[in-house]
Design a protein that fits this description.
The chain is an alpha/beta fold. Helix content is 35%, strand content 27%. The strands form 2 sheets. It has a 6-stranded mixed beta sheet with strand order 6-7-8-3-9-10, sandwiched between helices. The chain has a 4-stranded antiparallel beta sheet with strand order 2-1-4-5. Helix 3 runs parallel beside helix 6.
């Protein structure tokens, strides 16, 4: 099947800084692609550019065969793309329930899908009527992910979902994403945790200095420590 998302020669400038410098990236349909790289390589900028939060200054971004590089962020989201930012992007003053209601673009919350989400993120059910700002860091991350998947999405962009979380919560996240990708949802994930990357990744792309410098199977990169050192400056084990 053709790739669901393709970036060709994408450049992004933020002020006077040239962050993305000709990114070529293919995200296969129905798979989870890991986007790895050193800090400052341009990974977050890449996700934000896909979502239209930062505008590409050159190049094409094609989603399901359509160029979305000039679309506004709400229009991109309406095509079936969910986004989990590193900053979580929740409404702290609203309840857990209201956060999810706002994220459900097509209508009322689907009870069956909510129960599926609660199976992985039980705390969201427990604190259903609590303001989101009162949740712990891990619970806020759960809510951010739940907002992105409260309805079926064709593509979900996820920026470092395990950052700063306890191992038990990370394992729940891994289980949730593993099941999500089995629902024919395509996922592009930025991640630094080796266990999560190795467990979830089907494909991998590595960024350096605003470009993709390696693309292939995640399993091959996980098995090749010299390649990890060359691309990332240290082995993936050191990213845990």
């Amino acid at each position: 099947m053709p790739d669901l998302l393709t970036l060709r020669g994408v450049n992004t400038h933020i002020g006077r800084y040239h962050i993305l410098q000709g990114v070529d990236l293919s995200v296969p349909r129905g798979k989870l692609t890991m986007l790895l790289g050193r800090n400052g390589a341009g990974k977050t900028t890449c996700l934000r550019t896909i979502m239209g939060l930062w505008r590409a200054s050159a190049g094409a971004i094609e989603f399901a065969g359509r160029d979305i590089a000039r679309l506004a962020t709400p229009s991109i989201a309406n095509l079936g793309i969910g986004y989990v930012p590193e900053s979580m992007g929740i409404f702290a003053g609203l309840t857990v329930r209201d956060n999810l209601v706002l994220a459900a673009r097509s209508g009322p919350l689907d009870e069956a899908r909510l129960e599926w989400i609660f199976r992985f993120f039980e705390a969201l059910k427990k604190f259903w009527h609590l303001p989101a700002g009162n949740l712990s860091g891990g619970q806020k991350q759960m809510l951010s992910i739940a907002r992105a998947i409260v309805e079926p999405r064709k593509l979900v962009l996820v920026d470092e979902p395990t950052k700063g979380l306890a191992p038990s919560i990370i394992n729940n996240l891994i289980a949730a994403f593993a099941e999500l990708k089995n629902t024919d949802t395509t996922i592009l994930m930025v991640e630094q945790n080796f266990h999560a990357a190795r467990s979830l990744g089907d494909a991998v792309a590595v960024m350096d200095a605003g470009r993709i410098v390696h693309a292939g199977r995640m399993a091959d990169l996980a098995a090749d420590e010299p390649l990890q050192n060359r691309l990332l400056g240290l082995s993936l084990e050191a990213h845990q």
